[in-house]
């Protein structure tokens, strides 16, 4: 599995030359309501086994959680299901708030 830092992900999202990845937020709904990266899709971790077939295996998937632990577990699960373009956001939304968007609420 690959890992990406918050600043690297921000640069990727803002690069018109690169295809936009699926930003897969695996936190709970209340966490997503508190703060999230714009454009992220909420699919809570406990629903991934029943919903991963909804994802495009050809699109890069960046897994996101609060600090990077749950998203790493989801990324590993997706790789076991045959996904080859799976990336974990190191440090999660906490790192995004600290390194990219200081106006983002934290918890």
TrEMBL record:
The organism's place on the tree of life at top rank: Bacteria
InterPro entries (UniProt xref): GlpE_sulfurtransferase (IPR050229), Rhodanese-like_dom (IPR001763), Rhodanese-like_dom_sf (IPR036873)
GO-annotated molecular function: transferase activity
Domain Rhodanese: 17-105
Organism, scientific name: Herbaspirillum aquaticum
Full protein name: Sulfurtransferase
SUPFAM superfamilies to which the protein is assigned, alphabetical: Rhodanese/Cell cycle control phosphatase
A Pfam entry, by short name: Rhodanese
Keywords for the protein's UniProt record, in alphabetical order: Transferase
